[in-house]
Write a structure and sequence with these properties.
The chain has 92 residues and is an all-alpha fold. It contains 6 helices and no strands. It starts with a helix and ends in a 5-residue tail after the last helix.
């Protein structure tokens, strides 16, 4: 006896956050294209030298820089940016 419902359910389960993003964000999304053309990791390495080891750890340099770019391009206030990061999978 086969469980037909299990096949449908397994399609909804994802193994990683990256798999969720790849499934839900369109291939031609502008932010996805930006990641293809620009190496944020290289930029983050050079910016990491400016950070101190004191205090609590913050977000990764790469993620922070990307968030600042999105906030500037979309003309978000700080509160709007927080809201977009929580709810908009394309911005994440």
């Amino acid at each position: 006896m086969t469980n037909i419902g299990a096949n449908k359910t397994s399609k909804l389960l994802f193994s990683s956050e990256e798999e969720i993003f790849n499934t839900l964000v369109e291939a031609d999304h502008p932010f996805r294209k930006l990641n293809e053309y620009f190496d944020f990791t290289e930029l983050a390495i050079s910016l990491a030298e400016c950070y101190s080891e004191l205090g609590t750890s913050g977000i990764a340099v790469e993620k922070g820089f990307k968030a600042l770019l999105v906030q500037f391009w979309e003309d978000y206030s700080d509160r709007e940016m927080e809201y977009a990061l929580r709810l908009n999978i394309g911005v994440r």
